[in-house]
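pipeline/complex-builder :: batch 7 item 3
reading input block
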Amino acid sequence: MEDQDVALKILHTADWHLGRSFPLFAGEDQPKLTRARIEAVNKLLGLAETYAVNAVLCAGDLFHEPVPSETWWRELLRLFERRNWTNRPVFLSPGNHDPLWPNSVWAADHPFRRALPPWVHVVDRDDYEFELSEEAVLYAVPCRSQAGADDPTQSIPRRREGDQRIRIGLAHGQTFDLDGHQTNFPIALDAAQQRGLNYLAIGDTHAFREFPPKTSPMVYPGAPEATTFGEVDTGFVAVVLFPRHGRAPIVQKELVARWRWREETCASMDQLEALRHEDLKECVLRLSFHMEVSIAERARVDDILLELKGNEAVCGKVGVLHVDTAGLQVNVRDASDFDAELPEVLRSVVSRLQEQTAGPEGAVASQALVLLHKTLRGIVDRRGGGTQAAGRSAAQ
Amino acid sequence: MKLLSLRVEHFRCIEKAKIDFAEGLNLFYGPNDLGKSSLALAIRAALLLQTTAKEHEEFVSWHGTGDPFVELVFESEPQRIWRLRKTFGSASSYLEWSKDGVDFATEARGRDVDGKLSEILKWGITPPGGKKRSQGMQASFLSTVLLPEQDRVGAIFQQGLTGDSDESGKQQLVAALQAMAEDPTFKSVLERVQERVDIAFNSAGGKRRGKDSPWVKWNDEIKRKQDYSDLCLQELKKTGAIEAEIQELLGHQLAAKEAVDLAQEAIERLEQEFEKEKRRQEILARREERKARVEAIAKEVRELAEAERIHEERRLQIAALSQSREKAKAACSDAAHKMEQAKTDLDRLKSEDRVRERQLQQSGLETRLAGLKNKKLIEQSAVEGIQRVKAADEKVRKLEEELRALAKSAKDAQKKQDASRKEREELEQQERQLRGIRALLRRQTAQGKLEQAESGLAQVSRWRSEAAARLSAAADLEAAQPRFPLPSRQQLDGFRRLESDIRVAAAKVDVGLSVTVRAARPMRISVQSDGAGGNTLDLAESTFEASARRQMWLDIADLAEISISGGAADARQEAERLEQRWKAEVAPVLQAAGAATLEDLTTIVNEAAARAAAIQAARQEAAQLEQRAADQMDWAGSLAEARKELAAVEGELEGVDRPKLEKAAAKLGIKTVTETDQRGAMLRDGFARIAKEEKQQEGELLTANARTTEKQKVLDEAARELASLCAAASADRESDWQALLRQALARQEEIQTQIGRAEQELARLAAADDESVAAARKMLARREKELAEAETASGDAEKRLNEATLLHERNAGALQSRRESVAKLDEKGARELLERVDEELQATPAPQQPVSEAILAEARGKLDEAAARGAGIEGKIREKRGALQQVGGEVARQKAEDAGNELEAVKDRAHQVELEFNAWELLRKTLREAEQEEGAHLGHALAGPIARRFAALTAGRYGKLALGPDLETQGIAVAGDDRMVKLLSVGTRDQLSTLFRLTIAEELKTAVILDDQLAQSDSGRMSWLRELLKEVAANIQVIVFTCRPDDYMAPARTRRKNASDERLPAVRSVDLTQLIERWGMARAGETRSS
């Protein structure tokens, strides 16, 4: 398609959730994920430049809280300040996570709002209207609360007789078809048609979704970075081209996410070993187990987990790893996991603990055996690999 | 514990002995029967036997009188030195203690001594008076280990600690072996586990409650998450409740809307009537309004006429201002003209002609300047030429000087070469003389060897003759020796004991017998006393008395034979038995030796022994003489060699002037061949030195010649270059170069002065032109200022004209608007409208049924009431929606979900941490329990070290020794199975028991005594054990009694010496024959240590 055939190009995004924390993850994994959200915004702004879009529409939940810490809005400001878009307006619309409250980040006297460049606009009126060009107009509705029972798109005026412009709507809410979510800013499935819009840009759901008809679609671009496990079709923005001559808009789904969120349950050592050979640098992996291993294999599991997760000295093979060992059973009945040359007193300890594994404190006794094996291995390693009193190597 | 000294008196075969013990390995040696085992027994008795016990009788001296006495000094721990004195067979028993081993204080006496010993030794022996204490020599596991008997080496395998009479031995071993049981791995594990446990638990096993406690940390975290989750759930609950209320209110809102609709219809009907009246009133009001409009139009027409007049006045004012502006513009133009004139003047001064003229003058000066500079360069070149000639001349002179020096150097080298040649010839002469002297000296040496060999041969012959004489004497003595077997000294001792026993037995039956016989009727009676001849007599009624010492026999004819013996029946039997032994053992020996008594026999035996010693001495002497002869060198061979050497030297000296050579040798002070060789070596050094010098001198000469040739070439080249330069400078070599240089420099300076003057003229020319230009520029600036002022005046006039024009135009616009407005005012139309309203009023009738405001208000009240109800419901809905907005709705749901997930995650992690710390604690407890139980199981602690040593000794043939909890031996692993220890060979069993003893003694850090326990060991294992003993003796005191000292002192063969061997103590070996005084044998010397 020739450029002159395109009347308008927009980039539609939503649900950045800047400032969201990830308490499931510990240590340096948390900042990896929180930083990724800003990186995604930077990437989508870059994409807007690549496509030379005419406007960027951000459909709510851009911050995870209505009053985010300065760290977040300051960094977002920097991203805007790096660009000098005099002819590419950006529209920031409040969502139910960051509603337009008097003291929120969107308030007129908030330092964030005051520092925004003139080409970045905040949707702060229910009857917000902006002429994108002679041929296109934007209608936007902000969220003013965290919950609401009204359809926000009802504030958008209907198309007047003879109005040939491209009409674009921008709102935040949930379509009626989502089970259990009907009461929170419900948006009718035919809202775009009702209001005479060529495109209804909405946000809230984290997956990419496009609702018919093609001539006036309603689109969720989803979150540019996933926020938790189980989310599908996340990590996208929508680049929308509006051709002239009355043709339907073209919706292009573009990936901007860095992280893939993946859940894996290992049922065998082979399956676990196989993970070592995958490229998981950009993966947030939740690893759980459904298998039984010997004590020596348990040590091997620890080795592999260390290899995947890394430590202070070395990066792991997995970008972010969350391990759930609840399903990892250890068979502690086999004494051959311990070295035959173990001193008598330690053999006695092994026997005593094995006896206790059948009792009420069985789990504690099993864990104690694992710890004993691990401690012995540590001692042998420090001595330079002698066999005396050592736990057998799991690699055997 | 370690032993310091032992003193023994009247103890079995020992009359007196005193030995001192040292640290480390003490080796006491001596032949069999010397009393080594008696010393070991004395130590055992001192420590384990009460003096009054019956067993002391075994210690009674075999030969002399006096009670057995033992004094043992030992150290139980540093500065606790004990002196134990026991006299067996009495109650004399003392125990004293000292710090320094010099001043002793009494600690116990009599029976208390043994009680105190039990306490000090802790060997598992109950003190006297205790229930379990046995009679006689006390025995316990540790006494068996540390003080073993020579003939009960394996006793250690047959008992454990269970046989001890008290627990002190076991307690001592447990204390020692528990530390040993702390295997390094176990210890490391325990330390690491304890470190982890200490993080979460206090020393009492309770959970830590401090701020760093993981329990507190996780509990706080859980509580924090729980509170947050509860809060979120509360918010979520509110959201749900509000959403339900909103749904209910929406139903009420629908009913309220219907009521409002009904009220609205009633009002509409009433309002239609009310509207009719209202419209009539409205028409009346409109009539009044249109009347006012007609009057306003008339006023507007009047005001327009006034505005037209003012507008005309302003137009005239603008025309006047326009003229003023034209004048100002003309003045401005004039000023601009003048400024242009000034500019032209300035440009003229900068014109091309002027510039060209100045350039001509400048060019002349510059040409002159260039000529001068060229001359300066020529002069500079002349100066440089003179300097180059001067340098070339100096170079030629320097080369000539160097050439002369090289010629001198070559001459010196030639002289050195001649001197070296002369020195070499002198050395050759000396060498020839030295060879003659050497031959002369060799002849003298060969002559000496010849004489020595002849003398040696004679001596050997004498020794062999003497040896033959000794052997002949020994053969004579051998012939005089008895041909029957003589008893040994031990047998003789036995014979004496038997004789003594017979005397004692005889004394026991030699009680004196007396018999009185009173005949009841006449009878014949025969009597024999003590075996003597019989005496027969007839008795009538008289009394007969007979007596004997030990035996009597009465034969009463035809009536009875009466035999009477003295002493008890067993004494008699013993006497008879001894007599029988005498007859069987001693009598035949006496008979064979032809001796009547044991004394005779002893004399015969002693004589035979003396002869045997003499025979042995003679044979030894003969052997020594033979050996001495054999040890002599081969004198016959030496003689032959000397003769051969002499003949050879004589050949060399043939024709030589020997007296001259002898004089030369005396002059040089040479007396031996070696000295000749030394001088020869010096000569060779001289030759080598001269050869080296000659070579060096030859090289130097060649070098000097080559350099001379080369230098001559360079000189020739330099001379040619000098001649060329002189020609170029129009001078000769002998010119005064300094004067020539001064003249050239003076010319150069003159040219430089002329250059300076030309440059000054050029500068003046440039300055004169600059002054005219400055004046023209000043005029131009003044004209520019005048022009600016004229332009300002013109601008002001323009501005005033523009302002007036703007005001006029603005009023013109307003006037035009007013004209248009008035033109639009339709006065006629307004009057017509007024007329139409009058007509409309007439056409509008008044309502038939008037509706009052009250009726309408009542209807409206009803409507308002219904609307208020609806509004109330609407308000409530808004209120609820507002509330819903406050509580968060979906955000609250997500938050609650997130908070729940976080709480579960924290709980999981806390559970993991709790499980892990509990596991560490359980592991710690189990380690401690096992440690305690395994520590009490002494066998586990000890079996390993013993097995390692035993495996090393036997090259891995045997595995672990199975020891019970109380160290009872259960077996030994061989080829994977346990075998009974008694099935091992005697030697191996002895070795194992020795390892067992040494290991325990090491752990207890106490002395151990080994009474020749390794007699059955082969040399290989003995060698290993010898090294082990040294190693062990580095830590504890080891006392060995042996008859084979070489076993313990021979150098190691099987084990490689290593660095640690250097630290091992030397073996202290003591010859006991020097320390023990036996009955009838004197002590010969002092302790000899090595």
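note: The CA atoms of residues 378 and 384 of chain A lie 10 Å apart.
queue -> next item
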